[in-house]
């Protein structure tokens, strides 16, 4: 049986099983006809009307019991996490409330100096508020009204980091979980700010073992790879107080024009809608352009995906094209080539134009034709030319008919090496921090 067929059956099988026996069901207190997808937003996630004056300031916290904890795996993982809301700033300079979760390790830090902190930036989970990673802590899978299916995508990486004695904070990103705004998917400034301010917030929590002298790492793959890469670029100017020492950027969407073109026709093509919704929400000038080109089906699809998680998007839209969303039959990427404002948006989102802080490990699947290998390699080369300390890692994953498999297989193959690398960097490894000179001959 082909690998991609096995993978698709595994995903759908997991969804069915967890939806019936292993999933936390979050439902309204009273049954109602046609409930809103995702159900009511928990009160914790509703931002206050007034925000603190400082980026990274903690707004509120609550304790959450973890699904994998305590007697099941004694002395390895914590029993509880701290869900938190903190202040950040969006690309327009507007203060925003962001949620996430902090994990205090039970294992001691084996390195010299204070325990380090790693900020985990999640891969794509969706655009609906019910998809926020911090809502999938007590159960790895959640079924909410609609129905909508989501899960803790980064929990395996988080547990690997905790097992090596590193503290972890995971950000939900701007607009994901909090109902006051749209999640600005793959908006590099919003995501980079959310990562850096999560580090500030974690250090401000009472009773944690990290200190202001703790080294900080950033870890992310796919959307998370772009967020961690952006954080590395923005740290010197936005958060010089955050000692970002090591960044793992796996499969970052560094060139959105290339990535959106590659996403057309794949199982997850409708994530393009997440990006469109996010950019329009922060830049109202885009709305008339969008209205001019999208047909009724496109408008309905954009409204729909704004409330979905990635599994929902997969189930409803797999294999489609944005050409079915437009009046003239062109894809949104093709339209962007002729619209100056859209070209400007793509240009503003390119990652690789500023030297990254600290040491960076850039990983990319050589057969990744979704978040394409070539544009990741270009980012790494650009960083090298700017004087960055870059370790470039081409991951030789499978090449299948499924772009989704080609993209996610390197995540699995490279996760343990990536965690080992970030741990060694935070311990002060003397290993070379860059292989820039070898990139031109590395395939």
UniProtKB/TrEMBL annotation:
Q: Which Gene3D superfamilies does the protein's record reference?
A: 1.10.260.130, alpha/beta hydrolase (3.40.50.1820)
Family annotation (InterPro entries)? AB_hydrolase_fold, Lipase_secreted
According to its UniProt record, what is one Pfam family this protein matches?
A: LIP
Report the superkingdom from the record.
Bacteria
Read off the PANTHER family from this record.
Answer: LIPASE 5, PTHR34853
Any idea what this protein is called? Answer: Lipase family protein
Source species, please? Answer: Spongisporangium articulatum
